[in-house]
Design brief:
The complex is a heterodimer. Chain A is α/β, with parallel strands linked by helices. Helix content of chain A is about 55%, strand content about 10%. Chain A folds into three domains: about 45-100 and about 135-375, no CATH class; about 100-135, no CATH class; about 420-675, Rossmann fold (3-Layer(aba) Sandwich). Chain A contains 28 helices and 16 strands. Residues about 1-15 of chain A have low confidence and may be disordered. By secondary structure, chain B is mostly helical. Chain B has helices spanning about 5-35, 40-60, 70-100, 110-130, 155-180, 180-190, 190-195, 200-230, 235-250, 255-275, 280-295, and strands at about 135, 145-150, 150-155, 230. A two-stranded antiparallel sheet of chain B has the order 1-4. A two-stranded antiparallel ribbon of chain B has the order 2-3. In chain B, helix 1 (about 5-35) packs antiparallel against helix 8, helix 2 (about 40-60) runs antiparallel to helix 3 (about 70-100) and helix 2 runs parallel beside helix 4. Chain B is globular, with a radius of gyration of 19 Å. Mean pLDDT of chain B is about 90; it is low at about 305-309. Classes of the chains: A alpha/beta, B mainly alpha. The interface of A and B includes residues 168 and 471 of A.
Chain lengths: ~675, ~300
């Protein structure tokens, strides 16, 4: 072995990154660049005095906000929404109805306080008829209201889709996306049907009427965009954003790490819809009209094309994608058409003389979708950070024996050492005719290591799935610290103090090592949507503590994982993935850790190393239940061995007792071998 | 017209529509059954099929509906149009699979589905730019033969639609159940990896599924034109979504289910349009789609798939 051990305390020497994309990101990410972009955006209407150009730019800003919103649903949380325009429509009509002459109930005293608040005006009836109510709700009030209304519908439409997997979810959202414009068309009393709402009031700011000028809308759009970029970035880098991405990467693992799947998905739908609702209000105020045709499937697809082009999950990318496509449509295609016509006249080719490229924008969208998917799925500005290369010393790790070094507690729980930590009583589960687990009883005392062994298909993993709530039992009980956790949702079981790893490795492949571990802290942290955006001192402290803890837990594995904390989980070696899964489970501060074949795929040295580490975890107060096929590992560390066969417990006891057990020999080696041994 | 005559008339219409949806639904269901992909391109393969059939008919000198043909001549013209259309749309399907979808076969997530949306958009806009936005009067050689049952009318075109649609469906069923390739297809649908290990050329199976599905969509396109006497670049979207709903309703991945779902959706559309309101038909159909997906994702005939966890 030629590698030299490196000092974990010393910052690793990182060679310069050569990828041009990383360099671009680096340049774009600098404060001076951001300031330059902001200044250019601010100065644009002052430089380009063409009203049409500014108007197109204002529309592009609106679509950039839509793209940001869809990016939260599709890019962050991985929920493919093909009916996103529905929320755009809902926001537009919410404002449109309360700021136009469409709905005019008869005047009564009920409306007087609202008139006093300036929400309605009294319209004198024609020809001595009844007076009517005219809604005059301020744009500035309706902006947040539309966001809330759209968010409500986001949750309403999202709720039925919670159990659906990706492609079915897409179809259901597509269905809702179709239904909303149809309803708008078919309820003319509210929406004026296919003709659309007319005379929607433009905004008015301290007496300055926006009217039909483009410049004020441009600045309003810019303000909203900057605000929502801020919100997107804050959410992305928070507990909430990590939970969304965890769901995107692997729903089941996310649940098993303490994430309330239903709640976070609804949250993503709601936030995405809220963005669209605000944009709808902005857009309809700008156009002063709303028709059902403005919100049909092609709009949803256009926004999808924007985020695919820019890069799903990448905030800067989707904004760029939206601006490029919108401006392509309204600025460049017209110019380009002129040039092609000129070319046609010069060359005498009739097709070039007549072709209208503006009409072919959807063709271009289709081509972009296909080409991006085939050749650059991560988009123009990928969401994932470029990975720095490791030095040779960092790549080669020296096996370390002796368990975990350094002083830190793994668990801060008070556990009664006299009472069993986990009790499983008569647990049963059948799949069709197969009894995977039948009437298993199991007791795990605090501070012990219990190993579950058994031939393949004996029900070990099913037992783990039953304990952690991923599979609901047909009967029997699971008690943790004397309290029933039977059939609780997986994320609640994590909160109660059980964490697990998976036999087949369920890491969040496209998240970094750090983020994988931070997801593990989800059940022990509390930051919500608002906290993530505002980032209060409490949130900052929580995030800081979580990161300190994450690095602490990663340091258990010495320099195996620490040099790679910014790497994506999918780039790790097999053994390192196993270690990362253990770290992710440990960071949730469990009382009981369930390890499903932790040493599978590890070489003998790595196995020894991990065996020591598992033993040290127990010394630091953790109780461990593990499934393991390597009997030398089991013999080395287990206090008690439980043997399963055909879903039944056939033996239990100290390792050496179990090895002599006739039933166990029969199960593993067959009847003759068992008799011979006897 | 009595209510019973109305009902009978709408059942006749519904079965005709349903037969067309069923042909389309078969394409969705075969592709989904084998590679678990919702193929949005299928919507517009159907639409392109109706144009191809129109062009083939026009190439044979048929213009508008005023010059009906009879007897062998009629059968010959229709057979040529049907076969030519099916071969051309089938090849379009093969091209889509080979160029756009095969590289995506093992990409996890929704990338392949997004690609099919892109392909669908490309087909849609190629026809829009090439043939124009106006709807096209169809070339229809069918004579106006009709039988009256009470006050309900059964026309030759309906009988023809049924004959073509059900003939093709039985043919497909025979192919899938009785031929070696059909068995390979079933095996691939169960487990592509295991099928590959047993010597099934999975790429070939997928291409054939795309060919057959797209060919049936082409046949449905011809049927649409002959039935409604027009075609337009926009017909793919509505018909495609209804057919997809049919496939889901019957149990996606299930061939008899697609036929059953198609007929049900056709009947719902015609009866709902008659007895409820046409403008709500789409809402009804989408509501069925959402309800089936949420409460019985396996559909009427499908078995509940084991959730892989």
């Amino acid at each position: 072995m030629t590698a030299t051990p490196i000092d974990a305390g010393k910052p690793p020497v990182v060679p310069p990154v050569i990828s041009w994309r990383a360099r671009m990101r680096d340049i774009l990410g600098r404060p001076t660049s951001i300031a330059a972009i902001a200044a250019a955006a601010f100065a644009f209407p002052l430089i380009d005095r063409n009203d049409g150009d500014v108007d197109a730019a204002a529309n592009a800003l609106a679509f950039a906000i839509l793209a940001l919103g869809l990016n939260i649903v599709v890019g962050f949380a991985g929920l493919l929404d093909l009916g996103y325009a529905a929320f755009f429509a809902i926001g537009a009509y919410t404002y449109g109805i309360f700021a136009s002459y469409q709905v005019q109930p008869e005047w009564s005293s009920f409306w007087e306080p609202l008139q006093w608040l300036g929400l309605v005006a009294r319209l004198p009836g024609a020809d001595g008829g009844m007076d009517h109510v005219h809604f005059t709700v301020s744009f500035w009030l309706m902006l947040p209201v539309s966001a809330v209304v759209a968010a409500f519908f986001g949750m309403l439409f999202g709720a039925p889709t919670l159990r659906l997997k990706g492609d079915y979810l897409a179809i259901v959202t597509l269905g809702f996306g179709e239904i909303v414009p149809i309803v708008a068309r078919n309820v003319p009393s509210l929406t004026n049907g296919a003709a659309g709402l007319n005379g929607v009031a433009p905004p008015n700011l301290f007496g300055y009427a926006f009217g039909v000028k483009s410049v004020p809308y441009y600045y309003l759009g810019l303000t909203l965009l900057v605000l929502l970029i801020f919100v997107s970035v804050r959410l992305r880098d928070s507990r909430i954003g990590r939970a969304w991405m965890a769901i995107r990467e692997d729903e089941i693992a996310a649940e098993a790490m303490g994430i309330n799947r239903a709640r976070l998905k609804l949250m993503a739908f709601a936030v995405g819809a809220a963005f669209a609702g605000m944009t709808g209000t902005f857009y309809v105020a700008k156009l002063q009209t709303a028709t059902p045709e403005m919100f049909t499937f092609p709009v949803s697809v256009m926004v999808l094309v924007m985020i695919v082009l820019g890069g799903m999950g990448s905030v800067a990318g989707v904004v760029l994608g939206a601006l490029v496509l919108q401006l392509l449509q309204s600025w460049f295609l017209q110019d380009l058409t002129q040039w092609v016509h000129a070319l046609g006249r010069v060359t005498g080719i009739a097709f070039f003389e007549q072709v209208d490229l503006v009409q072919s924008i959807e063709l271009i969208f289709g081509v972009i979708l296909v080409l991006m998917m085939l050749y650059r799925r991560e988009g123009l500005i990928p969401a994932q950070r470029a990975v720095t290369h490791l030095t040779h010393a960092e790549q080669t790790a020296v096996p370390s024996r002796g368990g975990i070094a350094g002083e830190f507690a793994l668990s801060s729980r008070a556990i009664d050492p006299g009472k069993p930590l986990l009790e499983v009583k008569g647990l049963r589960k059948s799949y069709g005719g197969i009894k995977a687990v039948q009437g298993v009883n199991l007791t795990v005392m605090p501070g012990s290591i219990v190993a579950v062994i058994g031939p393949n298909g004996s029900g070990k993993t099913t037992l783990f799935n039953l304990i952690t709530g991923l599979v609901k039992p047909d009967g029997g009980k699971v008690l943790l610290g004397g309290k029933s956790i039977t059939a609780l949702a997986p994320h609640l079981i994590v909160e109660r103090g059980i964490a697990r790893t998976f036999q087949n490795l369920r890491l969040f492949a496209n998240m970094t090592v750090t983020d994988n571990v931070l997801v593990g802290t989800h059940a022990r942290t509390a930051t919500g949507l608002l906290g993530a955006v505002i980032r209060s001192p409490r949130t900052r402290r929580e995030e800081h503590d979580a990161r300190v803890r994450a690095v602490g837990v990663l340091s258990i594995f010495g320099n195996r994982l620490l040099p790679r904390i910014e790497h994506l989980a999918r780039t790790l070696s097999y053994a390192n993935r196993r270690r990362l899964e253990i770290a992710r489970a440990l960071v949730s501060e469990p009382a009981l850790l369930l390890l499903d074949e932790p040493t599978a795929g590890m070489n003998p040295t790595e196995t020894l190393e991990l065996t020591d580490q598992i033993r040290s975890m127990r010394e630091r107060g953790l109780t461990i239940l593990l499934i393991e096929h390597k009997l030398n590992v089991v013999n080395e560390i287990a206090d008690t061995v439980v043997v399963l066969d055909h879903g039944e417990k056939i033996a239990e006891g100290a390792p050496e007792e179990v090895h002599r057990n006739k039933e166990v020999l029969r199960a593993y080696l067959g009847r003759t071998a068992a008799n011979a041994a006897a | 017209m009595t209510i019973w005559d109305l009902l009978l008339q709408q059942i006749i219409n519904g079965i005709s529509l349903g037969a067309m949806y069923a042909l389309l639904a078969l394409g969705f269901t075969m592709v989904y059954g084998i590679i678990e992909l919702i193929n949005f391109a299928h919507f517009n393969v159907f639409m392109v099929g109706s144009f191809v059939a129109l062009w083939v008919l026009q190439a044979m000198g048929i213009v508008g509906q005023s010059h009906p043909l009879f007897g062998l001549e009629l059968i010959g013209v229709l057979l040529i149009a049907l076969i030519a259309t099916m071969v051309i749309t089938g090849l379009i399907g093969v091209a889509i699979e080979r160029i756009c979808l095969r590289p995506m076969r093992n990409v996890p997530g929704t990338a392949a589905m997004i690609t099919t949306i892109g392909v669908s958009y490309i087909l849609f806009n190629l026809i829009l730019l090439g043939a124009g936005a106006d709807s096209k009067n169809y070339a229809n050689p069918l004579p106006n033969v009709r039988w009256e049952i009470g006050e309900a009318v059964l026309r030759l075109r309906e009988v023809l639609v049924w004959a073509v649609a059900f003939g093709l469906m039985f043919g497909l069923n025979f192919f899938v159940r009785r031929t070696k390739m059909g068995k390979a297809m079933q095996a691939t649908a169960q487990d592509p990896e295991a099928a590959a290990m047993m010597g099934v050329d999975v790429d070939r199976v997928v291409v054939i599924a795309f060919f057959l599905g797209s060919a049936l969509a082409g046949a449905a396109g011809l049927i649409f034109g002959l039935y409604y006497n027009y075609t337009s670049f926009i017909i793919g979207y509505t018909a495609g979504l209804r057919a997809f709903t049919a496939a889901v309703l019957g149990g996606i991945g299930n061939i008899p289910g697609a036929v059953l779902g198609g007929l049900l959706i056709g009947l719902i559309e015609s009866l709902g349009g008659q007895f409820l309101a046409v403008r709500w038909t789409d809402v009804i159909i989408f509501s069925i789609l959402v309800l089936v997906l949420v409460f019985r994702p396996a559909g009427i005939l499908g078995r509940v798939a084991a959730n892989r966890s």
